[in-house]
């Protein structure tokens, strides 16, 4: 359960913090993807507490893909027991950022991302999870770190008190999967 909840929280961060193997910036001329440029080519280590009170450590990496038209975040728990990949793109028709998160636990999410003055907010629908139907997250950038706060909504409509995680930049950890 802890891994699944963590995955829901991390999906937004992965979108934003799955650090990249390639330090390739978006192709010039496709302005919407430029907001992800500061994350490309960096690796992050996130620490927080899971729902059971145990420490969680997550490693993430980012890269631009599809000729600079999409952004990909890959992450895994430090012990290798869970991970996922998020792909972000800008929906020209809707004029919004859309993402899809796929996990090693068999569930996935799909959502939208909105830029704020301090980072991003995200709302995502959870597909294929027995407990959760939605995740709402806030990602805050500042002082060389990234803070993520998430709340989960169950199929019964109950809202969790939320979880938090703080990420700091690290040296490239090598392959995540």
How would you describe the overall organization of this protein?
The protein has 177 residues and is mainly beta. The chain has one domain (2-170): Beta Barrel (Lipocalin). It has one helix and ten strands. It has one helix at residues 2-17, and strands spanning 43-49, 55-65, 70-77, 83-91, 96-103, 108-115, 119-127, 132-142, 145-154, 163-170. Strands 1-2-3-4-5-6-7-8-9-10 form a ten-stranded antiparallel beta barrel. The longest helix is centred in the first third of the chain and has 16 residues, at 2-17. It is globular, with a radius of gyration of 15 Å.
Task: Name a few traits of the molecule.
about 180 residues; Lipocalin; 1 helix; 10-stranded antiparallel beta barrel
CATH superfamily: Calycin beta-barrel core domain
Sum up the overall morphology in one term: globular
Domains (count): 1
- H-E order: HEEEEEEEEEE
CATH T-level fold name: Lipocalin
What is the radius of gyration computed over CA atoms, rounded to a whole number of angstroms? 15 Å
Q: Can you count the beta strands?
A: 10
Number of helices: 1
The rounded distance between the terminal residues' Cα atoms is: 21 Å
Which architecture name does CATH use?
Beta Barrel
Largest sheet: 10 strands, antiparallel, barrel
Give the strand order of the largest sheet, numbering strands 1, 2, ... along the chain. Answer: 1-2-3-4-5-6-7-8-9-10
* Mean of residue pLDDT values: 84
Task: Tell me the strand percentage band.
Answer: over 45%
């Amino acid at each position: 359960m802890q891994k699944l909840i963590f995955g829901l929280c991390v999906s937004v961060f992965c979108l934003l913090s799955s650090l990249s193997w390639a330090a390739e910036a978006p192709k010039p001329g496709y302005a919407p993807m430029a907001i992800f440029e500061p994350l490309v080519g960096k690796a992050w280590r996130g620490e927080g507490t899971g729902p059971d009170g145990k420490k969680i450590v997550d490693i993430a990496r980012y890269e631009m893909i599809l000729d600079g038209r999409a952004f990909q975040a890959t992450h895994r728990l430090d012990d290798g027991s869970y991970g996922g990949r998020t792909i972000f793109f800008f929906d020209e028709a809707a004029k919004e950022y859309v993402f899809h998160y796929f996990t090693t636990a068999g569930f996935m999410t799909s959502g939208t991302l909105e830029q704020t003055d301090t980072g991003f907010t995200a709302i995502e629908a959870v597909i294929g999870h027995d407990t959760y139907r939605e995740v709402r997250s806030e990602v805050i950038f500042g002082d060389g770190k990234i803070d993520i706060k998430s709340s989960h909504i169950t199929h019964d409509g109950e809202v969790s008190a939320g979880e938090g995680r703080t990420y700091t930049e690290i040296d490239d950890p090598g392959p995540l999967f």
